Amino acid sequence: MSDYRIKGETGEWEVVIGLEVHAQITATASKLFSGAATAFGAEPNTQVSLIDAAMPGMLPVPNRECIRQAVRTGMALEAQINRWSRFDRKNYFYADLPQGYQISQLYHPLVGEGQIEVLPDEQDESSAKTIGIERIHVEQDAGKLMHDQHATMSYVDLNRAGVALMEIVSRPDMRSPAEAGAYVRKLRAILRYVGSCDGNMEEGSMRADVNVSVRKPGEEFGTRTETKNVNSVRFVMAVIEHEAKRQVEVLESGGEVVQETRLYDPDKNVTRTLRSKEDAHDYRYFPDPDLLPLELDDAFLEECRASLPELPDAKRKRFEGLGITPYNAGVLTADVDIAHWFDGLLDTGAEPKAAANWTASEFFGALNRLDKSIGDSPVSPAQAGELLKLVGDGTLSGSLAKQVFEIMLETGKSAGEVVEERGLKQTSDTGEIDARIDEILAANADKVAEYKGGKLPLFGFFVGQVMKAMAGKANPQVVNERLRAKLG
């Protein structure tokens, strides 16, 4: 149970959250009912077919790949796949909707109930919570109005009209901004693993409608508002926080929450009224007469299931089974590109726990410092595997490995090349180590006497001096052994 509460003048209030996530099917380069392109950033109205523009006599034809990707997504969410589904017309007038209706699925969606397990607190395994999925339906997107192109008129760009969307509707199971944030992050990760959507919220290929209501704990659900088209995890959480507090203030001042659609202004961090909330009957839904129902056969469903990759939860469990800590396993599986990179590192034979620790600290730290993503990392999994192998076999100490890694980042060279060129091998030559130890002990006779007199923490000082004298190239284990022998 979430302990998130809004503290009002009349006591504590609980927030109830449901999300409708619109995910663009980016696995195919064409639209839901036409062959027009869907590339982001194209010049306005350059990706519009006669079907998208609603020219008379144009008939829609379902894109098989869009249906396949929606089914695969449903399977990844452990959802019911409906073998029989149907498209409906949602009728409304708006300038960016050439047909005067949107083809969607209301009564018989492609995908039914499913679920996602989220971890609101990544450090606390006990915070895990299952969020229900109510349905996934496939629909076409509308176009876009452009208000900044002319002083007195708005222009219409139909590039987005007809683009395939999956609307993923959650149950009202979330009770805090943290749970909603974890849900969106996990859903985005699953979509990216499956490959059905790139999850790019900045480009609008994934956006959320945020439904929020408040109630006194244990009471009936309150009246909800819907904040449209929120395009980042941070903004989803901010909308919930603001909207819940606003509703509490309205109720405690004797007012009523109005069921309505709102917009979020990220600059002012407020939501504002867009329009009163419509119900299904306002749209006069009816079955689309131009489209036959979708009927899925066993072979199609089996192919969809067989094509699914190892998903985040399964990958995380596999990593934990290799001795990797739950936290590191979570970090390494949160993004599909990171997971694939790390799997590549494991394929080199790297010891899993050491590899995970190094990746989560040294490697991610370097990427952050260089402002690079995993996709443009200057170090490949194979190069990282070679570096860790040199640490494992004693060729490099921890400090030398850091030096070598920095040079690899700068030059793109392999660890072996750097070690050979710079002479950075760790030495276990006891003769050379003994000679340096003798020099250090002779130069610090007073500290030797103190150590032998019981000041044992001075041992670390001697180790440090020897390592410094050997420019960090001495094997620390050998240094420790030889020092203990000589100090008695």
Automatic annotation (TrEMBL):
The keyword Nucleotidyltransferase does not apply. This is Aspartyl/glutamyl-tRNA(Asn/Gln) amidotransferase subunit B. GO terms for molecular function: ATP binding; glutaminyl-tRNA synthase (glutamine-hydrolyzing) activity; transferase activity. HAMAP family: GatB. Residues 340-487 form the Asn/Gln amidotransferase domain. The lineage of its organism: Bacteria, Pseudomonadati, Pseudomonadota, Alphaproteobacteria, Sphingomonadales. Keywords: ATP-binding, Ligase, Nucleotide-binding, Protein biosynthesis, Transferase. InterPro entries: Asn/Gln-tRNA_amidoTrfase_suB/E, Asn/Gln-tRNA_Trfase_suB/E_cat, Asn/Gln_amidotransferase, Asn/Gln_tRNA_amidoTrase-B-like, GatB, GatB_Yqey_C_2, Gln-tRNA_amidoTrfase_suB_CS, Gln_synth/guanido_kin_cat_dom.
